[in-house]
Amino acid sequence: MIRTLPVALCAVLMVSGCGSRLNPMNWFDFGPATPADAVASEAPMTEIIAAANSENLIAGIKELKAEAIPGGIILRAVGVAQTQQYHSAELVEFPTAEAGVKEFDFIALPPEVRAPVGTEATREITVAIKLTNYALDGIHQLRVRSASNVLTVRR
Fold first, then answer.
1. Whole-structure pTM over 0.70, yes or no?
2. Over 70: is that where the pLDDT of 80 sits?
3. Residues whose CB falls within 8 Å of the CB of residue 99, separated by 6 or more in sequence, listed in order
4. pLDDT tens sequence across 81-134
5. Is 49 a residue whose pLDDT tops 70?
6. Which of 126, 49, 51, 116 lies closest to 82, judged by CA?
7. Helix, strand, coil shares, percent, the chain, to 5
8. Which one in 14, 22, 53, 102 has a CA-CA gap of 20 to 30 Å to 140?
9. E strands of the chain, at which residues?
10. Chain-centroid distance, C-alpha 76
């Protein structure tokens, strides 16, 4: 038994390195990987971003704070989702024509299955983003949008 175990392990290692059917890595062949198909669109990128973000906007924003740190600020928002289990929340910059204003959409991905509504405390999501002084050059107002309200902080 003592001699057969190392010999068997060496044999398994040798077989796993080749392209034979004995290699466990070759048992489940799903075919060659192919690149995803790209679909060209005539719409400008800002319209595509707006449409994608508007579907995933959080229900409402409860709190918005800009906290000073060395070299910039941290913009922190607390939002309330429609139901529980919303995830992967982000503040996504939204292009605006207003001078001196930086606008963000508070988005979160919905649950894959139907989720209970629950209390407001169970639906709260906190998200933050660091903005450097360089990125804030000429900006005097930060705005965050949700599906039902917009909150603003001034610098």
1. no
2. yes
3. 138
4. 999 988 888 998 888 888 899 999 999 888 888 888 888 899 899 999 999 999
5. no
6. 116
7. 20, 35, 45
8. 53
9. 60-69, 72-80, 87-94, 101-109, 124-132, 141-145, 150-154
10. 16
> Closest by alpha carbon to 133, among 88, 102, 87, 96?
102
- The pLDDT of residue 102 is 92
Tokens 């800002």, located at residue? 46
Q: Are 61 and 77 in contact (CB under 8 A)?
A: yes
CB-count burial class (<10 Å; 0-12, 13-18, 19+) for 141: middle
SS3 77: strand
Tell me what the pLDDT averaged over the chain comes to: 80
Distances (CA, A) of 53 to 31, 92, 146: 35, 8, 10
- Two structure tokens written together for 21: 């059917």
Whole-number Å distance between alpha carbons of 90 and 108: 6
